[in-house]
Amino acid sequence: MTEALIASPDGGATGPAALATELPRGRSPGWWGMLLFVTTEATLFAVLLGSYFYLRFQAAAQWPPPRTGPPELTLPLVMTALLLPSSLPVIWAEHGIRRGQRWRLRLGLALTLLLGLAFVGLLLMEYDEKLASLTVTTDTYGSLFYVVTGFHGLHVTVGLLMLAWLLAASTGGRLDARRHEPVRLVAMYWHFVGAVWVAVLFTVYLSPRL
Amino acid sequence: MSAVAERRPDAEPESVHRLTEHWGEAPTLRSWFSTVDHKRIGRRYLVTAAVFFTLAGISALALRAQLARPEARLLSPQEYNQLFTMHGTAMIFLFATPMLFGFGNFLLPLMLGSRDMAFPRLNAFGYWVFLFAGVVMWASLPAGAAPNGGWFAYVPLTEREHTPGAHLDVYTLGLLFLGISTTAGAINFIVTALKLRAPGMSLNRVPLFVWAMVATSFMVLFALPALNLANALLFLDRRFGTHFYDPGAGGSVLLWQHLFWIFGHPDVYIIVLPALGIVSAIVPTFSRRGIAAYPLVVLSLVAIAIISFGVWVHHMFATGLPQLSLSFFSAASTVITIPSGIQMFAWLATMLLGRVVLRVPLLFVIGFIVTFVIGGVTGAMFAITAFDRQVTDSYFVVAHFHYVLFGGAVFPILAGLYYWLPKFTGRLFSERLARWAFWLILVGMNVTFFPMHLSGLLGMPRRVYTYPAGLDWDPWMALSTVGSYLLAVGLLLVLVGIGHALRRGPVAPADPWGGDTLEWTTASPPRPYNFAVVPEVFSLHPGWDERTRASIADGATGERILADGRRTPLTSELDGRYERPAEMPEQSVRPLLAAVGLLVAVVALLFGWYPVAGAGALLLAVTLAAWLWPALPGATEARVAR
Hints:
The complex is a heterodimer of chains A (210) and B (642).
Chain A: H1 2-7, H2 9-14, H3 16-19, H4 29-58, H5 74-83, H6 87-98, H7 102-130, H8 140-169, H9 181-206
Helix pairs in contact in A: 4-8, 4-9, 5-7, 5-9, 6-7, 6-9, 7-8, 8-9
Chain B: H1 13-23, H2 29-34, H3 38-67, H4 77-112, H5 120-139, H6 167-195, H7 208-240, H8 253-287, H9 294-307, H10 323-335, H11 337-353, H12 360-382, H13 385-391, H14 395-425, H15 431-457, H16 474-504, H17 546-553, E1 567-571, E2 578-583, H18 590-607, H19 610-627, H20 635-641
Antiparallel strand pairs in B: 1-2
């Protein structure tokens, strides 16, 4: 094998080593890179939610302030029901492209994209409703509410951009059974966005009622 | 640098020719903007950080001139505030970390026996972002809008109603901008060290400098988010009227201090750990034996990285926190001296057991050991809450952290600069000039900072632009100023020495010192592809190990030559077993474009031109989309087969 590699450049292209370049044997640098990126992002959310609780427990008075009252739960629960299951189609899509089924990749990505868009739409609806009585400048509670949910919403939006990019990139046979690493990486990011939502839901919507 | 490789006896001339074709960069203007070569990027980090160091140093000289005598009117209070803030901010954020990242960028792939970093284009992007962030922050100084709230920018002083103007917006946005570069660099270092080690380099054969860079990078990933959040919230408070730090509306000023120091104390070690790694690289070479207690040194690096997250409150002992938390953080601050001590004894033991060759790099290491221990002693004093409360915010603190940071970072950086200068430039330097520089710096540094202990104990507070006569501070302040100018002359001599080496220095051999790590087994400066044959590593000291040296000489197999394309081997994370060759990206201007997009966004945010900021973000997004666009099938094979 190695003799052939040295002997001729063309032999290198068909040798076992060259053929293996796109098969994920072991963890790839991209996988580690995305894992570390998600880790540092998760730390950012941990510090942000930690600050929420710090400010909440420093506040002597009732939380949320009496004039605001505890947040409504219906809409956020619907949003949860959209965002958490939206990880499933992207998993299904990833398994599909590993077997070379491009239709599964496209369908799965499109489904996740739709669910994510619906999530962002509902978040904007909630803002629209709430802004009449509470803004970022009302008090610290208002600042926290909008910055925590808005920062998560921004991450969902970035995730949606990634999904749209992936959907566009899946044309022309760029992704197939042997080269599908981008799908895996975008999926990791999307799962992370969903997992963070659970923490946001607990902190912003559920914990004030405890 | 010549793009034509000399024929080397230790590899097939034909494969060297092909490697040069794939990795070499034409010396054109375009390649200057599009390079992804970790060696060029590393050198740029070093030079850029050195320029920022010079600017911050000149700021310090201006401060010392103002403080030389009581009631001086050389600087206005406003100028003084901006200068001391920029001095601190630039030394910490724009010099220390990027300088050490420069060493890491240049050395990590070479020490690991790889041909580049894991993400070469991300590496280039990180450099451009660092450069732009530094330029934005320094440009605010002549505009009279530089940060002026001290390097830790405590609220409520830094809120809009107390500090109007752009000052603190430059600070928050500049550091957020810079944070992107630091985070990208940290991820790159970790993945490079995990996946791109030469075959055979299992974790217990990884050089200590690499361990230090990896521990540092993990700290960056967990600590920097706190600073980024603190800055983002401050920017929102100042620009959009949120109330995170406003007690009147339910916020808390202590939140800033907690967030800042959750980042800030690990940051001390983010700066010091790579510097300790440099020391661990230099001591064995000049002791002519391997480092003593290698596993213990690795464990103490990791222990420091972890414990450093549990000591932040010792910066806040005087803020009225509950007694119990003070005791906990006091204990943790005492415990963290143990792993630092272990390393200290490992270096001493190495020198004691070896045969010391007192060349210039080791001289600076000894300067480091002496200075850092003095700084460590005053540090242990601060861990005692009662003492801390007496001297907090006094010049005693200023003296302490200058001993720690000058001793713990600048001395090792200078040691590393001299040690690797032959590798960076291919030239040898004048030892005589360097010895003069060393003694001037050592004396100047101590004359500058030691008197500050005394003026601090005599009650002089930090961050005052002047002081009245007759408080017994005058002689110590004057002495500090004399020392600072001595120090400046010493540092100037370093610069002269480097310039002299570049112009007149004799050509350096591959291994001028007899070092034990892999960078000394390749040319000075290394060829664009680093190693004509990727080494196979058989021990912790590959440079002193016959089998490893033989592995690059002849009889190498094709999977370690990889001359068909830009390729380097990937190996397994723990044992360093050969997995497969990785296709490395070619040069590209997209990293620069993406950084320009960010620059536009940051500057526009600073001036409040939000649509322009949106356009910058769009440029960034489009560039990233094109950058990561998957290639059509066959493209890779076509390039390989070319």
